[in-house]
Design brief:
Layout lengths: L2 E7 L5 E7 L3 H10 L3 E9 L6 H12 L4 H16 L4 H8 L6 H15 L4 H5 L8 H13 L2 H52 L11 H36 L1 H13 L1 H24 L4 H8 L6 H15 L4 H6 L6 H13 L2 H57 L1
Antiparallel strand pairs: 1-2, 1-3
Length: 409
């Protein structure tokens, strides 16, 4: 059924912009008037005719990146609530379409609703939008459909997404202050070296004496920054561009992931995040009826590190040959002992899903603690670095003055 985007006025005289599905523009106008909404303009967004499918797919693809994880989690939670209240799936989707703030998600939900009405499964319709609905999402929905527990699965998906969003927000919040301090500190140093220092050091040019080494270094650095600032910015931009291009290559990506894991604090944090994400995702998939082999194939794409992904792929191959998951994970030396031991306990007791959830809780909590420790260390280090640089500037300026006073004395 075609979808129309309209601009209209409601009974209170407020302007309204939304979408509606109808057989024709006349039918859309009639629907809107019945709802006491008076359209000003109506234009067709798409229809289900085969000649428009490719154009519409490209159109929707361009919007897919605008659907935030937070909005997807909210829609998932709302859909689970409506299904729990007894709404049929199509009616629940129809109810959610106007409530979405994202025009991209509105259009996608409309197409999903149409696909279900035409006989597609919910998971099958979701799989047409891989940039919005991940493999985890689609497979868990497919499992929920087949087992009749779609409402429960959607609530779990919302829980997973909200937990990941909360952890991501904590990381960003913890790092915001050190990053701000670094930016402000750098800006102050540049201002001092390019404007204040040259003004003060001008008086030293007429001195008929050898300047102290700190003063010579300060004047040289100040002159270089003032004269060749564009070279520094250009070199920085080129280096950043080349680095991004390099890490997008297969070799560069492996080098970057290996290098990050080897860093003192950052490596520990990334390892804990990867283990937590692996455990949480694998446990959720197994809990919702996804087979272990299929779950491992999905999880390897969400850990965020190629070394971990290769380890999981190797573990999947060993499991397929009849080996234990815990033994296979232990061969890589990437997964911590506690993760392997708890996985082994879960396999032996038949409670693998529960144990994986506990592993995820442990490492998500440890990741938060590591972030707090990093923040506590970064702040004094930044202050100390700024103090050393400013102290050097003050010393370089004061030394010649002290020498002048001694000569006068």
């Amino acid at each position: 059924m075609p979808i129309y985007e309209y601009k209209a006025f409601n009974v209170k005289g407020k302007s309204v912009t939304d979408i509606i599905d109808a057989e024709s523009p006349a039918s859309a106008r009639q629907k809107l008037r019945s709802a006491r909404i008076y359209p000003v303009s109506i234009r067709e967004v798409y229809d289900t005719a085969s000649k428009k499918q490719k154009r519409l797919s490209d159109f929707l693809q361009s919007f897919s990146s605008r659907v935030s994880p937070a909005e997807l989690a909210m829609i998932t939670r709302q859909l689970a609530t409506l299904l729990g209240a007894g709404f049929p799936l199509v009616s629940a989707l129809y109810t959610l379409i106007p409530q979405s703030r994202s025009s991209a998600l509105k259009r996608v939900l409309s197409q999903i609703k149409d696909a279900i009405e035409e006989g597609s499964s919910f998971a099958g319709a979701l799989s047409q939008y891989p940039d919005i609905f991940s493999d985890i999402y689609v497979n868990m929905v497919r499992s929920g459909e087949s087992s009749g527990t779609l409402e429960i699965v959607l609530n779990r998906l919302a829980d997973i997404s909200e937990r990941q969003q909360a952890l991501s927000h904590k990381i960003k919040s913890a790092m915001a202050y050190p990053i701000l301090m670094s930016f402000v500190g750098t800006a102050i140093l540049v201002f001092l070296l390019t404007y204040i220092v040259p003004t003060i050091t001008t008086m030293f040019e007429d001195m008929d004496q050898v300047l102290p080494l700190p003063t010579v270094i300060l004047i040289a650095v100040s002159e270089y920054l003032k004269t060749y600032w564009w070279v520094i910015l250009g070199a920085g931009a080129v280096t950043l561009f080349a680095f991004k291009r390099f890490v997008k290559t297969e070799k560069g990506a492996y080098w970057y992931d290996r290098m990050v894991l080897s860093l003192p604090l950052v490596g520990s944090l990334r390892r804990k995040l990867a283990v937590g994400r692996f455990s949480r995702t694998l446990g959720s998939l197994l809990e919702n009826g996804v087979s272990l082999m299929a779950a491992l194939g999905i999880v390897k794409n969400v850990v965020g590190n190629r070394l971990f992904a290769d380890s999981i792929e190797s573990a999947a191959a060993n499991v397929e040959k009849g080996g234990n998951l815990s033994d296979a994970l232990g061969e890589s030396n990437l997964f911590p002992n506690i993760c392997i031991q708890m996985t082994q306990v879960g396999e032996n007791s038949g409670e693998l899903e529960t144990m994986l959830g506990k592993v995820a809780d442990i490492y998500e909590k440890e990741a938060e603690n590591t972030i707090s420790a990093m923040t506590s260390m970064l702040e004094p280090l930044i202050i100390l670095f700024m103090a050393v640089i400013i102290g050097f500037i003050v010393l370089a300026i004061c030394l010649p003055i002290f020498e002048m006073n001694m000569m006068v004395g």
